[in-house]
Amino acid sequence: MPDATRLSAILFLLTASATARAEMVMFSQRNFQGTSYALTAASSSLSFSPRSVRVLPEEPWELCPRPFFGGTCITVSDAQPKLNLPRAFSGMVRSARPAAGTAQAPETNPAKDSQPKP
């Protein structure tokens, strides 16, 4: 394999593995132990009983008690080593998705905003 082709293949593999990381991981036991279930995109139908959850910083996820994001969902915005699901979940997460509106609002400039308007 020519050097340029080999380098392209290596770069592709590195890029693919870097983007394939899980955005949320649920664990069957507390303190991130036991069987894990990783999600990188919304899942409208699943069946997992998490006791702990990890999410990437500033990328919250919604966990829902019914398929297709039904019921009263909860938002997980940081690592939860001891996740306590509400009673409506009956211990099971049936669907999950990245939380809507996670983009931060633009910062305002107080000095500019306080200037009198002409």
In brief:
The chain is of the alpha+beta class. It has helices spanning 3-19, 110-113, and strands spanning 24-29, 33-39, 52-55, 61-64, 74-76, 95-98.
Description:
This protein is α+β, with helices and mostly antiparallel strands. It has a domain at about 25-100: Gamma-B Crystallin, domain 1, CATH 2.60.20.10. About 20% of the residues lie in helices and about 25% in strands. The protein has a three-stranded antiparallel β-sheet with strand order 2-1-3, with no helix packed on it. The longest helix has 17 residues, at about 5-20. The N and C termini lie far apart (about 70 Å).
Overall 3D shape:
globular
- Write down the CATH topology of the domain at 23-100: Gamma-B Crystallin, domain 1
- Calculate Rg over CA atoms: 20 Å
What is the level-2 CATH architecture name of the domain at 23-100?
Answer: Sandwich
Q: Mean pLDDT, rounded to whole units? A: 78
**Portion in strands:** 15-25%
Poorly predicted regions: 7-20, 102-118
How many alpha or pi helices?
2
Query: Could you say which structural class the secondary elements and strand pairing correspond to?
Result: alpha+beta
The run of helices and strands is: HEEEEEEH
Which strands sit side by side, in order, in the main sheet? 2-1-3
| Top-tier CATH class of the domain at 23-100 | Mainly Beta
Q: CATH superfamily name of the domain at 23-100?
A: Crystallins
**C-alpha end-to-end distance:** 69 Å
Please outline the major beta sheet.
3 strands, antiparallel
Number of strands: 6
Helix content: 10-25%
